[in-house]
Sequence to fold (247 residues):
Amino acid sequence: MRKNWNRHIANIWLQILNKIKPDKKGLFLEIAPGEVNKIGLALSKYNFEGKLFIIEPNKNALKRIRKDYMKNLSCTVRPINKMLDSIINGLPENISCVLSNHPMDDFIVGKYLKSKDFDNFFDDHYDGDPEKTRSIWKKIGNKPKSLKKKRDLVFKEWCELIDKRKSEIVIISQYKSYFFKSNKIPFADKQAFLVVKMLRKRYKRFEISLDNIEGIHDKSRWLLLDFRRRTNFIVVTESKDLKREGK
Ligand SMILES: C[S@@+](CC[C@H](N)C(=O)[O-])C[C@H]1O[C@@H](n2cnc3c(N)ncnc32)[C@H](O)[C@@H]1O
Fold:
């Protein structure tokens, strides 16, 4: 089931890459893969041969995904064992593509965990036991004000990455999780999706449609941003404004 699901999601990623065509020899940034190779499978089929930075704060997950990617990808792999917010300023500016599969629920949870608890939580993430996840989301839900603050922090962190590092393309998925659905934790899904909605609102003018991409149940759960025409956009707006002034 998990293998088939991974392949299904990887196939969606591949279709998106083929549609938008980020530079195959450029610098890609995968954020929070955990130990899951969904994006890696897509990159391999896309024949990506550039440089891939993997940002993953959980040591064990990073070790596993690095091994997998080194074996199965033809690109250079650079693992970075850090939280996203602590590394943004140190990243290069010429990023061709930022990719992240289903990160936002874990980003929110991560904001509640100190380093040792963080590792314990994400080390146990793949054993299928929903209790830890259910219990932490129950606690999170009990304090809506604090949750809003944490959600805003996650949103700001992603905006900082997008605005400061000027990546050409950003692709984020936050589809409805089977795990949350089958274990009746819909609240987590909702909170994670709220961050995607905030990003969509802020970067609306750069959003690309997912037309012709097959296998997506709910397209609003995928965010595909293309900033390659960032400068053109400003020029177009200016000329419109000038026209308006002339009238
Ligand atoms: C468990 S994975 C799940 C998503 C995975 N990409 C997939 O496709 O199934 C999520 C990862 O997010 C990482 N994470 C949580 N907060 C983070 C942050 N602030 N910066 C970078 N990674 C973070 C965790 O270490 C965890 O391994």
Observations:
- Residues 2-246 form a domain with the Rossmann fold fold (CATH 3.40.50.150).
